[in-house]
Amino acid sequence: xxxxxxxxxxxxxxxxxxxxxxxxxxxxxxxxxxxxxxxxxxxxxxxxxxxxxxxxxxxxxxxxxxxxxxxxxxxxxxxxxxxxxxxxxxxxxxxxxxxxxxxxxxxxxxxxxxxxxxxxxxxxxxxxxxxxxxxxxxxxxxxxxxxxxx
Length: 150
Description:
The protein is α+β, with helices and mostly antiparallel strands. Helix content is 31%, strand content 19%. A hairpin with a 5-residue loop joins strand 3 (93-100) and strand 4 (106-113). The protein starts with 6 loop residues before the first helix and ends in a 14-residue tail after the last strand.
C-alpha cells in the first residue's frame, strides 16, 4: 500500500488545529476572577480593603431618618455588577456599600449577593468611583413624574 506523500503533512496540520482550538477553549472558559477592562473606573479589592473603605465612610456618615424612595446606580457600578455576574452567574443580586477613600472621595463597594442574602466575598469585590451614587433622598430628581406628590 502506497501512502500519499502529503498524508502526514495533512494529519499534522489537522492535529495542530484541533489541539490549538482545544487549548484556546480551555483557557477561555476557566473560572478565574473576572478582570475589569482598563480605565473602566472599577478596581478589584479584597474584603479587608472594602472594610477599610466602609469604616472610613461610617466614621463621618450622618444619620438618615427619611424614607428611601430610590437609589442611583452609576455606570461604573453597573459595569462592576456585570463583571461579577460573569464570574458567578449563580448570584441572585448585588449590594453596594458606601465608602470613602484616603482622599475623602465617595466610593461604592460592589459585591455579589448569594441566594441566602449574604455577601459573596469569595468572588470579586470592586471599588467604584461614585460621585452621584446615593439614595433618594438626599439626591433625588424632584421633577420626575415618578415621584410627584412625595
